[in-house]
Design goal:
single chain, alpha+beta, five-stranded antiparallel beta sheet, 5 helices, 11 strands
C-alpha cells in the first residue's frame, strides 16, 4: 500500500506540473529538473511490481512492421564500420520490437555484434511521432557513450524533425535512469531469447547478433509529451523511427528500415523509415484515424443500404 500511495502522489505531482508546463511554452532549467526528479522517483517507487524483463523471449514482444510489411533492416548499412551499430533483420527475424508491461514501455533492437570491448558502447533511439504529424515529438533510448551509461527520454531539437536532415536531439536527456537488470540488457541472440530462430548471425560477419533492450516508465513519456502540448495514452496511435548513433544529439549511424539515408532530405515517410501505426499496447498495426473514420463511414453506409433493401422486401 505504501508504494501505491507514493505512486498516486507522484502521479498527482506530475499531472499538476504537466498542466503548468503546457501553459508555459518554454523548456527552462526548472522544468527539466522537475521532470528528472519525478521520473527518477517513479522508477524507484516499487521494484517489486515491475513486470518488465529485458531478457524475456521475443515471443513476449511485438515485432514492429514497416510499410513494406516486413521486418527490415539491410545489413552493413551503418555509417561507421562497427557492426554493433548495425541494425539487422529479415522477413522471419525482426530487427525491432516493442513491449508494454506493468506501466513500462520497452523497445528491443537486434544489432550485428558485440564489438570489443564487451558491452554496448554507442547510443540507440526510438523517435515517437505521437500525433501522426510526420514530425518526431520525443526520443526514448539508451546512451552508453562516455562514462555515464543510461536509459533516458530526450526532447527533439528545434528543427522540423521530419527527415534525417532536419532531425536533431536535445542533449542531455530530460529524464535519465541508471541501467539496471530491470530496465536494460545487451545480450547475445540465442534459441532461448529468440525461439524458432534460424540464424544467430544475420549480417554474416562471423559474430553473434545481440539484442539491445531498454524500458522507461510510460507515465514519464506521457508527461514529457504533455509539456509539448500532446495528449498521449495507451490507446494513442503513433509511428516510430528506430536508429543507432555515436552520440545522443543526432541519428547518425543506422536508420532501421532504410538502406543508408542518414543525411536524406526525404521525409521519414518517403524514405521508408517510419513504422506502421501502433498504439503502445497494440500487438499488430492499427488503422490511422483517417482510415478508421473512412471504415466507420463505409460500415454505416453499408448497414443503411442493407436495412433499406430489407425494408423494400
Amino acid at each position: 500500500m505504501l508504494n501505491a500511495f507514493n505512486g498516486n502522489i507522484m502521479f498527482r505531482i506530475m499531472k499538476s506540473y504537466r498542466i503548468s508546463a503546457v501553459r508555459n511554452a518554454g523548456r527552462g532549467l526548472i522544468q527539466k529538473l522537475v521532470l528528472s526528479a519525478v521520473g527518477a522517483a517513479i522508477f524507484c517507487l516499487a521494484p517489486a511490481v515491475f513486470g518488465q524483463i529485458p531478457t524475456s523471449p521475443t515471443t513476449l514482444w511485438v515485432p514492429i512492421l514497416y510499410g513494406n510489411n516486413n521486418f527490415p533492416d539491410p545489413s552493413a548499412d551503418q555509417q561507421t564500420g562497427s557492426a554493433e551499430s548495425d541494425m539487422v533483420g529479415n522477413l522471419s527475424q525482426p530487427s525491432f520490437y516493442m513491449q508494454y508491461t506493468n506501466g513500462f514501455l520497452g523497445f528491443r533492437f537486434r544489432v550485428g555484434a558485440d564489438a570489443s570491448p564487451a558491452g554496448f558502447k554507442g547510443a540507440a533511439f526510438v523517435g515517437l511521432d505521437a500525433n501522426l504529424s510526420g514530425s518526431l515529438d520525443l526520443f526514448i533510448g539508451v546512451n552508453n557513450q562516455g562514462s555515464g551509461d543510461s536509459v533516458g527520454i530526450w526532447f527533439p531539437g528545434a528543427g522540423l524533425n521530419t527527415s534525417p536532415k532536419t532531425t536533431s536531439i536535445v542533449s542531455p536527456p530530460t529524464l535519465s535512469y541508471s541501467e539496471t537488470s530491470l530496465n536494460y540488457s545487451f545480450a547475445p541472440v540465442t534459441a532461448v531469447n529468440n525461439p524458432g530462430a534460424s540464424s544467430f548471425d544475420l549480417n554474416a560477419d562471423g559474430r553473434t547478433d545481440q539484442f539491445l533492450t531498454f524500458y522507461v516508465p510510460f507515465s514519464a513519456i506521457v508527461s514529457a509529451l504533455a509539456t509539448e502540448g500532446i495528449t498521449f495514452s495507451l490507446n494513442s496511435p503513433m509511428q516510430l523511427v528506430a536508429a543507432t548513433a555515436t552520440q545522443d544529439n543526432s541519428l547518425n549511424e543506422d536508420l532501421n528500415g532504410v538502406n543508408g539515408g542518414i543525411n536524406s532530405v526525404l521525409t521519414w515517410q518517403q524514405l521508408g523509415g517510419t513504422t506502421q501505426t501502433y498504439t503502445p499496447t497494440s500487438t499488430t498495426p492499427v488503422p490511422e484515424p483517417s482510415v478508421l473514420a473512412l471504415m466507420v463511414v463505409a460500415g454505416t453506409l453499408g448497414s443503411l443500404l442493407v436495412a433499406r433493401q430489407k425494408a423494400r422486401v
